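A reminder before we start the practical. When you read a complex entry, don't treat the lines as separate problems. The point of joint prediction is that each chain is placed relative to the others, so the output describes one connected object in space. Small molecules and nucleic acid strands, if listed, are placed in the same frame. In the example below there are two entries. Take a minute to note the order of the lines before looking further.
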Amino acid sequence: MLATAIHERQPAVARTFATNGCVPYRCRVTERHQENDDTFTVELEPAGARSHAAFAAGQFNMLYVFGLGEIPISISGDPAQPDRLVHTTRAVGTVTRAMATLRRGDMIGVRGPFGSSWPLDDLKGKDIVLVGGGIGLAPLRPALYQLVAQRGDYGRVVLLYGARTPEDMLFRAELERWRSRFDLEIFVTVDRATGDWHGNVGLVTALIPRAPFEPQNAVALICGPEVMMRYAVQALHKRGVGPQQTYLSLERNMKCGTAMCGHCQYGPHFVCRDGPVFRMDQVQRFFGKWEV
Amino acid sequence: MADYEQLDTPSVVLRADLQRLFDSLHARGYETIAPRVENGAIIYDEVTSVDALPAGWTDEQEGGFYRLEGRDDGALFGYTVGPQSWKRYLSPPIRRLWQARKNGDGFEIVHEDAPTPHYALIGVRACELHAIHHLDDVYLGGSTIDADYQQRREAAFIVAVNCGKAGNTCFCASLGTGPAVGPGYDLALTELVTEREHAFVVTVGSERGADVLADVPHRPAAPGEIDLAEAIVAEAARHMGRTLETTGLKELLYRSFEHPHWDEVAERCLTCGNCTMVCPTCFCFTVEDTTDLTGQSAERWRRADSCFTTAFTFITSGSQRASAKARYRQWLTHKLATWQDQFDSLGCVGCGRCITWCPVGIDLTAEVAALRAEEIGQPQPEAVLEMA
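Here is the predicted structure of the whole assembly.
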């Protein structure tokens, strides 16, 4: 009799007829630079009268390249500067490879922002542990900007970042600048040392046991390959950072961004709407299982 | 619409006057979509004359089997449901969303602005009316709505039909979704074919339903006719070919994520996606961006999609559901479990199409029964945290 409640509901009446969620707005590339061999950052400004909507750290946009396709990419810029829309991505598919060739003045389409965010406003007073792997640093950077801007509101702020090689590190100049501050703890590790690297070598999860934070008062924000996140969750758990103190950002195939196309379903969740940022206990039932 | 207080006394419209219903709808600007026979199946298509309805046809259905058979009483609605459902009219399987054209230093986007079709959907069964309400939940229930669906949906006039025959693959009775139609229709018909008359007991469900009926010759139904109409539907309920036990269904499926039975289903499942195409609640779509040969103009199309393809979940690291087992599990688990968490209802309405149109006759009611019969212990959710 589960289905009986439903037909007592009225057919939905017109809500704010708002934006037609499927049509992008046009933006121009104002800057593009290479972060490493295959990863680049673009800055976009709206073409025409409209301005970018405000976004929260951890949200994403759907970016459209004329005629080629549209893909979800997280925002890597500063939420305090919504007029500077910044995305960092790897050139790995049809659309991102085309985006990699964009030049200043070129036009692309944008829909968004979509999805959940790192709940920084609710975490004041906490030690914040950001764990990033590879391109996973991109959606964490808006959180770092916000934490740095509101530094006094938080306990310790620790970034644990793993890259394949020193050359693959993203935002290197920024990381070095942040590392020189006395109120940020930045630890970087690489899978394979090259050149004159004298830093850590190994998995980012290996940094967790000795990272300087107070487990009972800490909250972890994790983004990276799913297997890395899985082991990061376990390492954090071992130190006493439980599922309710752990947030992660999931990646899934997305076509609409509005919980209608069905592609991003992860158990009962639409990752585009309920995620990409989840608190671990929301997804614990499925996380780490194959082919959810 | 749904808040219209039903008239206490149903009316009777004679078979000979049913054309007047079509005419009344046409006069109000509706395009009448109704069942008709094509290629050995009953489909939903534009039908302007009552004579084009599948008079004297019925269907035989079984897992992987569908045949039309004759029936000698000339009934117009004497079958259950065919391969199509009304979703193709409310949410067309393929449509253009917008076009873009290159200009001097960029491109401009031209919104698709087609006029909204006004459909009268004639012959909507109880299960199908539930399915439409499920699509409402998906496309209109969130903070962003599908404007095209909304326009088509609000324009649609629904003539529901109570089932006088249960199909062999039907199980609406066990889900509470039929065979008697629930609220949400404009007019509801029950077909009576007796030695004395061929007529329809008509219930009015909305003001516009009453308005349309006013143009059709009708008289108050006699108590005997009302009783007969109820008896026919009750009889159909007793002859359902399948049942699906819903008690604890969600938890059963959540517990069964790693059940070995999925491997067994995967040996039979061809991952063809037929079940998703015929399912009246399957709503998934993809978008395709194309250009013309000159590269000057681009289009975005929305196309019905199926979770049975590997492309459906493809990201840089590959398809997230590469195995057939995972794709069947996702489909069934979504219909019966995760849908409950998403929309507070079952995603299945018991129409049985997925059973009938599965080329190898996979029967979701049997798969659920197998999961129930062979319940296994499951690792605790915390397990992931303890593995090192």
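Discuss with your neighbour: The first strand of chain A starts at residue 25 and ends at 34. What might explain this?
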